[in-house]
Amino acid sequence: MNIILVELNEINFDVVNDYIKNGETLNNLDYIINNGLTSTSSEKEYELLEPWIQWPSVHLGKSFKEHNIFRLGDIIKSEHQQLFEKIENKGFEVGAISPMNADNKLKKSKYFIPDPWTKTRISGNFLIRSLSKAISQAVNDNSQSKLKISSLLSLLASFIVFVPTKKWLSLLSYAISSIQKPWRKAIFLDLFLHEIHKALIKKYKVNFTTIFFNAGAHIQHHYFFNSGVLKNNDLENPSWYIQRQDDPLLDLLKIYDRIMGDYLE
Fold first, then answer.
1. What is the separation of C-alpha 68 from the centre of its chain, rounded to a whole number of angstroms?
2. How far, CA to CA in Å, does 182 sit from each of 16, 134, 152, 188?
3. Percentage of residues in the chain having pLDDT higher than 70
4. How many CB atoms lie within 10 A of CB 156?
5. How many helices and strands, by DSSP H and E, does the chain display?
6. 43 near 49, Cβ under 8 Å?
7. What residues contact 124, with CB distance under 8 A and at least 6 apart?
8. Looking at the predicted structure, is the pLDDT value of residue 144 above 60?
9. CA of residue 94 relative to chain centroid, distance
10. CA distance 200 to 206
11. Which of 150, 259, 176, 165 is nearest to 212 (CA)?
12. Which residue, among 245, 225, 222, has the nearest Cα to 234 in the 3D structure?
């Protein structure tokens, strides 16, 4: 058993398909859409469609009425068994990077990096634990643009250890570009986590691993009016906020297409 669960938070595949129909090259996402994409049902009440409710439904295989998890971090109060423990109890090794609203109840995981908002145990060596704390601090203090020296050092050490040297220039260039294109900061974090995930898969060869990507949710919330497939042209972001020719969602989908290509291989 070797399974990779890639969690693309809030990505709308109808929108992805619209970009493809418009001639954008998103071959790997196109492959997924046309080779076994399955639609599932969700909650009907609008207030229950939040991702911190929906992802526990995925991990638990239960509806909101069954799991009653309503807020970020509420999973730690739950006694329900998640898919992570169920798989481990079958004798398989499990790893996870930032699954939303998930509790680390694993007994022998080589790596479990919680999401930045859930107060649960970190699994892994010293570098993985320090990386997890740095990510949590960076995400939670993002509004103040504060980054502790210890967090910066942990992120730098993780970059050196986990990212292949041949990728350093392209990733650093992408990070620098976020000065002019601030939405790329979130995309860079997903790219960074992806490289870490690949390195951990290669090192530990766990049977089941999952990774959660959140840049899509952030970009859609802030920049969707700049999407090239938006049907209503009366909706647009002000020019002081973002230039009209920029399309952060397409920028993101090109990176996600590249990431999915890595996993499809």
1. 23
2. 22, 20, 19, 10
3. 97
4. 11
5. 11, 4
6. yes
7. 109, 110, 111, 112, 113, 132
8. no
9. 18
10. 9
11. 259
12. 225
Distances (CA, A) of 104 to 48, 110, 122, 232: 24, 12, 7, 43
Provide the residue type at 139 as one letter. V
**Which amino acid makes up residue 130?**
S
pLDDT one-digit tens code per residue, 148-161: 898 899 999 999 99
What is the C-alpha separation between 168 and 251, in angstroms, rounded? 20
Among all chains, which residue has been given the structure tokens 């929108």?
Answer: 15
Residues 158 and 197: their CA atoms lie apart, in Å, by 11
pLDDT tens per residue, range 186-211: 999 999 999 999 999 999 999 999 99
Q: Which residues contact 213 (CB under 8 A, 6 or more apart)?
A: 6, 7, 8, 9, 190, 193, 194, 256, 259
Q: Distance of alpha carbon 135 from its chain centroid, rounded?
A: 12
Gap between the Cα atoms of 11 and 20, Å rounded: 14
